[in-house]
Each structure stands twice: as C-alpha cells, then as structure tokens.
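Trying the structure run again after the queue cleared.
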Amino acid sequence: MVHLVYCLVMLLGHLITAHGLGEVIYAVNAGGEAHIDVYGVRYEKDPLTGKVGTASDFGKQLVIGRVPPGDQVLYQTERYHHSTFGYEIPLKGDGDYVLVLKFSEVYFNAPDQKVFDVMLNGEVVAVAALDIFGRVGRGVAHDEYIPFAIAGPRLTAGGQETQLRGSKVKVEFVKGYKDNPKVNAIFVIKGRLDDVPKLPPLPREEDLDSVEEERRQGPSIHPSSSHNHNNNKQPPQPAKRRPSGPRTPDPYASDDTSSMLPVFVAIGAAIPILFCLCKL
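Done. Tokens:
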C-alpha cells in the first residue's frame, strides 16, 4: 500500500512539473537511441556513437528508482571513457539556461569507487567530485542541475566565468583517479531552474521521515476502546512453558511387578519341596 501511494505521488509530481517545462534546446540520450520522455522532451541518439568513448546498456538489467518505467532507459544506457570527454551544446542567444545531467550508478556497490568532475569549457567547475553512489546509491536516478547565464561572449555559472567559443558551450566529464567519467543523458533548457522538472525525493528519505513521525506520535488508542478494554480486563494467564529435555520418570508411580514379588518367591520355594515329596 505504501509503495502504491508513493508511485501515485511520484506520477502526480511528474505531471505537475511537466506543465512548466522551459524551452528545450538540446537533449541527448548518452550511449542510447532516441527517446521521448514523459514531458515530451525528445532525446536524440548519442552523437558520439562510434567516435569517442564506450556506449553501455549494462544498466538495463536493473530497475532504476525515482523514474517512471518508460523513462528508465535514460538512466540505463550511458557513455563512459577512459579519458576526459564531452559534448558541444548549441546556444540560442543571451539569457538564462539550465543544464541537466542525468546519472545512475549501475555497476559499483559502494561509494568512493567512481568519482569525477564536470566542467564547462574546461574552466568552470559545474560539479566537483561527483560520486553517484555516494549521493543516491546503486540503481537510483540522480540529476545535477547547473544554471548558467549567457551575456555576449561570456558564460557565468556559480560565480565563475568563461569566454564562449562561438555560439556553443562544451560540457566535459573529467577523468580523475577513481575509475572513468560517465553520463547517462543530457538536456538543456533556455529558462530558469523553476522551469526544470525535478526528480521526486528519494524513497528512503520519505520512509525515514514516516518512521520518525510514527515514533514521535506513539501508538494511537481510542478512549472508548481503552475504557472497554479496562472493564473486560481478564486476569493474566500463566504462560505455557515448553519442556526442555526428556521427561523424567515419576518415582511415585505404581509398579505392578513389585506387587507380584511375594507370589514369585512362594512359587520358587515350593518347587524344591514338591520335588522331594515326589521321591518319597
């Protein structure tokens, strides 16, 4: 029942946020084929296919959390590389933009195994020391939202600035000391962060909140039921205990063989006497 309620809330959240989606100017399903998500965003086939890095669908053996079934493919396919790699994203003039990077850890089972940075134009740190498993665990969707602004030839993000090369910005996944950088999907909108549909909260966070709330409230007992319970209160019954070990013989139990012992003695004594009489 709890799982059903969570699924309904997640779907409702998706439908509500889809209405305010900004203008999508770029979307790619990294390592995968073209796909249209629940918001109507059309993700193109990975343009780096056969050029840079390795495409993988290893994640298709997992059910990815936090996303509708139809959109799990966006987190099940990926592109990774043994070196730094990236995508060039076209822009549409000055204004506010949001870069959304989609990730899911489908291989490692512990944190601090795959850690890498994400850069814009090789100068602006968009995401530092990203550890996907450390953020959400294995087989769970994780999105990074990077707002940035374009004013002439300058790009500004998070208080950092870089010069544009033409009308494009390059997002790069930087090779570090811990495994290979990767990405599952990318999209960019022209708009503000409020215009971007967000992933629902992590299920485990909601579970912890509900458990903590129940703990604070304690068991709920209706006054009338409590009163009736007191009126009909029965004396406590002693608990039945199971015997531990074999049953001990009762030393006071009657034994039929002991009562017949005098008879057997008399018969035994009479046999020699009868033998002697027979000889006479």
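The radius of gyration is 39 Å. Worth checking whether this holds up in the mutant runs.
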